[in-house]
Amino acid sequence: MGKVSAAIDQGGFNFDLCRRNEMLMSKSGFKPPTYRKTGTTIVGLVFQDGIILGADTRATEGPIVADKNCEKIHYMAPNIYCCGAGTAADTEAVTYMVSSQLQLHRHATGRESRVVTAFTLLKTHLFGYQGHVSAALVLGGVDITGPHLHTIYPHGSTDTLPYVTMGSGSLAAMAMFESNYKKGLSRDEGIKLVCKAICAGIFNDLGSGSNVDVCVITKGKTDYLRNYQLPNPRTYVSSKGYSLQGVKLRFCQLGLSR
Amino acid sequence: MDTNAPHSMGTTIIGVTYNGGVVLGADSRTSTGMYVANRASDKITQLTDNVYLCRSGSAADSQVVSDYVRHFLYQHTIQLGQPATVKVAANLIRLLSYSNKNMLETGLIVGGWDKYEGGKIYSVPLGGTILEQPFAIGGSGSSYLYGFFDQAWKDGMTKDEAEKLVVKAVSLAIARDGASGGVIRTVIINSDGVTRNFYPGDTLPLWHDELEPCGSLLDILSSGSPEPMST
Fold first, then answer.
1. Using CA atoms, how far apart are residues A9 and A4, in angstroms rounded to an integer?
2. Residue B60 is nearest to which of A151, A156, A168, comparing CB atoms?
3. Which single residue of A84, A110, B180, B193 could bond B27 by disulfide (Cβ 3.0 to 4.6 Å)?
4. What is the pLDDT of residue B223?
5. CB contact set of B185 (below 8 Å; sequence gap of 6+)
6. What is the model's pLDDT at position A253?
7. What is said about its interaction partners and assembly (chain B) (predicted)?
8. Does the domain formed by B13-223 have CATH 2.40.480.10?
């Protein structure tokens, strides 16, 4: 009892577990758990009325698919959405944190949030953590000053471009954009191009897969099209259904289990 | 390809004084390892109406430093009641670079015009030194330009001569440095104001062993539907 209170009284950080981790790794050959990464293909483009964001839906833990239908397009504000690649926990946490900061700001100012606000909050946070918060983001939205599309990298650097791709499937997706993008695309052309780019990532990158999520943001209206395309149906589903410990389950033929 | 590698701007940046002002020039490539993350970036950022900054090194570090200095200069301008001088801007950059030298990786060239000294170029390389020079070069592509400038630089050039020199120099560096590429951007600052120019690849001369572009995307895209591949 006396020993425990002495440790608490000392104050500061307690690094005992670090020593234990090092010992486990060197002596027992124990490997630390791999982070759940989103592998990912995420894209964004500017079209004539606003912004279209796209993402695949596979989340990986090393070589295993941890989630076949995760959501990578995160809500920031009614008019601002953010796609996230990198460590799933980091992208979720950082987008949720900035989203709540934006909400408080909206209450304080009484105005619609601006993309540049989210942009500055995200870039400042990521720069401060010097790349250790492994979140690569595609931030897009339409506010009073017009449509905006930005990429934010884990080290805090940013780019502002008419079309962007991020994640392990970014090269495949960028190939689609570079050959087919033009200024002033219509809504349908834009969605088609985004789907093409995400599908390029899904089929050619091992870290990306499953379905295509699309989010169309225009002035005054946002359409979050969850599972807009499902190009990877389950090839075989038993018509008798599957039973697990007495519970009978039936899977629909097109949807993925959740 | 390591998508988590920090973004560096491989880069070629140049700042040149001429009779009446300065010309700043840069390429437009930002790389993550071997992938070009942004092929059309703008590395010449504005600090005040009359002072601009060429950035090289880590993209994140140089963006943050330029944001801080822009803010300090804005405050300084309000308190001073007149436009900030190029020397003050360069020294603010130097103060941040030097005191954070262990954590930052930036090579910066500050250029501008003020009514006291006219056109001035200051170089603030990796350690945070400040050097006032009639011309300055920086970035990975600058290695290929030291000899070129020794031969081609002369004092008292006109605005057009200076800009032509900058464009030629960046174009030569792009030809030889893998980490530089894209388009060439220039900014001319003098007593009349600021002029931004843009030179895409097809306007630049071809150097030794370079061939005429054939079947480039610029032609395919403008003609409507993509042509089928030909052998």
1. 9
2. A156
3. B180
4. 56
5. B25, B26, B28, B42, B43, B44, B196, B197, B198, B199
6. 41
7. Component of the proteasome complex.
8. no
